[in-house]
Design goal:
This protein is α/β, with parallel strands linked by helices. It is built from 13 helices and 18 strands.
């Protein structure tokens, strides 16, 4: 079977936005809430407070997003919900009125598409919320409700709000706020398929699927793919699976997953022993223990062997998300760790995803701290910002960085060197994670060209026949291009 994935994803640089925290609209809009008591934008976020970010605010920042080089946005949930992160879905057909409702989303979608920016929404289809109409009917009517078989009811009475009594229904991760849907019920299955189709017809460019591994109903994700792709064959379907995802990446289900198997080793290599263990312990990815270059190379080569190449090119690669601490906080506020990891992210096959604020050095420990308001410009780290802009621009300029073959050239001590090759276009990327300068003479006999154009970084280098002599300053990287 020939695997087909959406071509645009191979050339995309994603920006992950948590809508409540990115931007409040500064323009006069027709709002349902005129004088809401929003949490202070600059204050530390709380688990239940809202900061009042909205879709109009994002629309007003599209110039910034486009200028950064972003051409795809992944939104965490935007549907009506009684939580600031909106993973507690209340109505799958209504964009949250706090965000501006369906009309604001249509306006934003059109404005993004005018700039050739794709939009992917978060599909939370494993569980709903206590306020979800069908579940609410059960809370009101008990065993008389016609919706009983839509959930996993285990006894009576239900106890949705008190921890003293058994819940008597299945909640995701034993959370009473998140009643799990019964996907074995054909009515539930059809309901979710129709939601997926509705928003694809509305114009979105794909779905990011929340905890899709929880849905074990046979054929569910195959049908989901078939129905979404029937409407838009180029729609992107990406699953939130943190580990080995071969089960879902066989070409019949997802186009990719959130590639935490890239994130973990890349942070372990670039941040090394700076990693703050309390920010990563017990997490489903491994940014610890520290890795040397040879160990990192082994993990990367293993990852690149795991899935078909067509799938590798549509993986969603990341260093941080709303579910992790931010990289700069994981790395003990060490800026070179961020710059080195970002260099590896933006030169890796698959679509890089930047978590809003990471590009300006926004710190944040584990949730809720990793979901801070996007900082005022006076608080930006300009160096980290310029590093992102420069590396994103290089990725857009060189097709080899997007779809070219990835070949490890040398991995010794703290120095990791690899090439990206596409036809006659060849680039060499080198990273020194050590605290001392490193010099190496590298045999490059398997390259057709001798990349001599310095595209990024401050190395010293020269060529002797088919050997590259390279000196890299401590905690730095470089990119050499052939043209």
């Amino acid at each position: 079977m020939q695997i087909q994935t959406p071509d645009w994803v191979k050339h995309a640089v994603f920006y992950q936005i948590f809508p409540d925290r990115f931007a409040r609209s500064k323009q006069t809009r027709k709002r349902l809430l005129q004088n809401a008591s929003w949490e202070d934008w600059e204050a530390m976020p709380t688990l239940q407070g809202y900061k009042g970010g909205d879709l109009w605010g994002i629309m007003e920042q599209l110039d910034y997003i486009e200028d950064l080089g972003i051409n795809a946005i992944y939104f965490t949930p935007i549907f009506q919900s009684a939580s600031n992160h909106r993973y507690h879905t209340h109505d799958y057909y209504q964009v949250d009125p706090m965000l501006g409702g369906n009309s604001a989303f249509k306006e934003l979608l059109d404005a993004a598409h005018e700039r050739n920016i794709k939009v992917v929404l978060d599909g939370v289809f494993n569980h709903a919320s206590r306020g979800f109409f069908f579940f609410h009917d059960i809370l009101e009517n008990g065993p008389y409700s016609p919706w009983l078989n839509w959930f996993k009811i285990e006894g009576w009475p239900l106890a949705p709000y008190t921890g003293e009594l058994p819940a008597n229904y299945v909640g995701w991760a034993d959370n009473r706020a998140l009643p799990v849907l019964n996907h074995d019920n054909p009515e539930v299955r059809e309901y979710i398929m129709e939601i997926a189709e509705y928003w694809i017809k509305f114009g979105i460019d794909g779905w990011r699927l929340d905890v899709p591994f929880e849905i074990k109903t046979p054929g569910f994700w195959q049908e989901f793919r078939d129905r979404v792709k029937a409407i838009n064959p180029e729609a992107y379907i990406v699953g939130e699976v943190w580990g080995d995802s071969r089960e879902w990446l066989d070409g019949t289900q997802f186009d990719g997953v959130m590639n935490y198997l890239f994130a973990g080793p890349t942070i372990a290599f670039t941040a090394g022993d700076r990693v703050a263990l309390e920010q990563v312990q017990g997490r489903d990815y491994q940014p610890h223990p520290p890795l040397f270059a040879a160990e990192y190379a082994a993990k990367i080569e293993e990852l690149l062997q795991l899935y078909p190449w067509e799938i590798q090119l549509t993986q969603l690669n990341l260093l941080a998300s709303h579910d992790t601490a931010r990289l700069i906080s994981i790395a003990g506020d060490d800026k070179p760790s961020v710059e080195l990891a970002t260099l590896l992210l933006l030169t890796f096959p698959g679509a890089p995803s930047i978590y809003y604020g990471d590009e300006v050095g926004l710190p944040g420990k584990l949730d809720p701290d990793s979901r801070r308001g996007f900082p005022l410009e006076a608080s930006w780290d300009r160096e980290i910002y310029q590093t992102h802009r420069q590396l994103i621009a290089l990725r857009h300029s060189y097709p080899a960085l997007r779809t070219g073959e990835y070949q490890v050239i040398s991995a010794q001590g703290t120095l990791y060197i690899f090439a990206r090759k596409l036809g006659q276009e060849e680039l060499i990327i080198a990273v020194n994670v050590g605290t001392a300068p490193v010099q190496a003479d590298v045999d490059i006999t398997n390259l057709q060209t001798q990349p001599q154009k310095l595209l990024y970084g401050k190395p010293e280098f020269n060529w002797h026949n088919e050997s590259l002599s390279l000196t890299l300053p401590p905690r730095s990287g470089c990119i050499l291009g052939s043209q």
